[in-house]
Backbone:
């Protein structure tokens, strides 16, 4: 195969990857919702490094890269609170953070603008996000 054809093949694969629907993040049967119905179990702080990548892609638009909401997104009647504030973050348990991510804002008594991610992420990915969010405040 020529070099050019190889590059074309790689580019094609990348394009295909991009066309995959967002909901195909983890197979449905491996999602946190399917596996444990969003019940937080065991050690809730996973791999913060992996959580950082997920956060940058899916959460930072509303929560900011560092947990401080820097842009006021339209329709956010209740903007996300400052997750880099240790005083605030100490009032929240890891289980609450897990539930808020898995079940969404409304179920935990917060804004409905916060989406539910339980059918999108695996249990491990939610734990990775919890670990990363904790790193904003060092709590
Ligand atoms: C469309 C905007 C939006 C997106 C995207 C979003 N959130 Fe939120 N999030 C919110 C809002 C609004 C609240 C709740 C504000 C309130 O009622 O206090 C919230 C609350 C939370 C809370 C509860 C603790 C807190 O900060 O007060 C956690 C944890 C959280 N979000 C994590 C995430 C994670 C992780 C992602 C990405 C997987 C994410 N959010 C994506 C808007 C968003």
Residues:
């Amino acid at each position: 195969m020529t070099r050019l054809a190889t590059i074309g093949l790689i580019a094609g694969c990348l394009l295909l990857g991009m066309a995959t629907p967002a909901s195909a993040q983890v197979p449905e049967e491996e999602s946190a919702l399917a596996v444990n119905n969003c019940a937080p179990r065991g050690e809730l702080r996973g791999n913060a490094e992996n959580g950082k990548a997920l956060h940058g892609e899916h959460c930072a638009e509303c929560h900011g890269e560092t947990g401080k909401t820097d842009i006021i997104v339209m329709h956010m009647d209740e903007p996300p609170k400052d997750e880099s504030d240790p005083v605030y973050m100490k009032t929240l348990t890891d289980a609450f953070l897990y539930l808020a991510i898995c079940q969404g804002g409304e179920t935990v008594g917060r804004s409905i603008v916060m989406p539910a991610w339980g059918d999108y992420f695996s249990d491990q990915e939610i734990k990775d996000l919890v670990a990363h969010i904790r790193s904003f405040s060092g709590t």
Notes: Confidence is low (pLDDT under 50) at residues 6-21. Residues 10 and 16 are 10 Å apart (CA to CA). The chain has one domain: 25-137.
